[in-house]
Amino acid sequence: MNRFPSPRSKVKSAMISPAAGTVFVLVHGAWHSSWHWARTQRSLARLGAASVALDLPGHGFDAPLPSGYLLPGQPGLATEKSALAGLTVDECAESVLSTLREVRRHYRTVVLVAHSASGGPVSLAAETAPDLVDRIVYLSAFVPAGRPRFVDYLTAPEQTATVRGGSLGVGDVESLGAFRVNPLSPDPEYVEELRRTYYQEIPAEGFARWHLTLSPDLPSAVPMTPVRLTADRWGRLPRTFVRLADDWAARPAMQDLMINDADAFTPDNPFTVRELPGGHSPFATRPDELATALVSDLR
To answer: What secondary structure letter does DSSP report for 55?
Structure first.
């Protein structure tokens, strides 16, 4: 009797994984980029799932920086208009759609995952071409079903009563055309507030490798442009909300508000809600748990 499985049987076992034939399209939030998903992608791969992480326009290696951002004293950081000021939500959604069109040719199941502010472009992409998506996952992400602008949730009492990070903005949003932060700030108190708001589970001594990878500008159009959804297009898609129980950037009460608003919008197709402990960035702090949550609805 052969006590050890043959290579062929190992391959067969892998192929019957619930994640086989599935690709996760991972879309980052404000000031982040595709590389922030790397740990989660490794965790997904161990579960048998393929994944692709994309950069929204103006993010990643191609993110334009204010001219004084890397200079001593950061001259003009609070006043220089952003190079992303004219970027639209439609352009961001088109970058998502481009990736969806590519992966749909090769995979049976496409799961679209939005983190945080990318919920707007992701939702618009799904509304535009629902046949390209089999499920949407909102990772503490904006859901525009009830209120079409992310800023409408960010200013709701459910968010403002206990939110952190209100002092992180640099300059005037309208003048800059962007929501600007300063990941390279020389002020240790500012950097600590950034950590506590978005990466609270990362020790202060290890935070540099994360905050130094952030870009300073989120185009103002992303949280401020209305995204209009319909029940017969976006609303027909299965969707999951991964609720983050200790999120200081998107408070649990605001997450619940978005979930409830969306369920009222499509009462016959409510969210599947899954919860993870911890803060706003589980892709950095608990990638294995996040990957498990992502594949759980494939079973």
So the answer is: P
